[in-house]
Amino acid sequence: MARTLAAARSDLELADWRRRVGDLYRLQGQGALQGWRQGRDRLFATHPQSPIAPADRHTFKGLNYFGPDSRYRIRCCLEPARPGDNWLDIETNGEDGVIHYRRSGLLRFELHGVQCELTVFAMSGYGGGLFLPFRDATSGRETYGGGRYLFDTVKNTDGLSLEMTPGSIEVVIDFNYAYNPSCAYDDRWACPLAPRENWLSVPIRAGEKAYR
Predict the structure, then answer these.
(1) How far apart, in whole angstroms, are the C-alpha atoms of residue 146 and residue 211?
(2) How far apart, in whole angstroms, are the C-alpha atoms of residue 185 and residue 172?
């Protein structure tokens, strides 16, 4: 019975974590980005589902970020995925095993004078969800070597702005909200990382830096 109650408590704590994370993306106005960052620090320091190891939370001083930069807030169109094999399996090296994704579409944009392209993935499991992992020229130096995420709607990190018309889908992506996967903080986590097609050659000096 005790183990069953502990498992139920953990499930409820996870649901609460995702709800609170999602609330941070609803912040509006000039201080929204700062509020998002401060809110994440509070959750990482105090919440039972924090990816920071429990033994390290009492010394946690906050996450590291690049300064805000409006150049990394980019409007682009979501284009259809290329014809062919639109399925991709990403290994997590953990209990989740292989996660099956469908290539939902392509985001093309220019950054630092370079034409860039990122694939948006849709999870094939129950309920779906959109996922955008990426690596860039800072990965392994200034930022986590495995790359970062822009959004993962299954986890309620859905900082994604859409404008849909009959002929197109415009998307606003903001790399100032780029964040590390949980495995960047503690080896006990296993995360799907950016496939090679989402490796950018340009440096993205926006969003979260390496934790240590």
Answers:
(1) 12
(2) 28
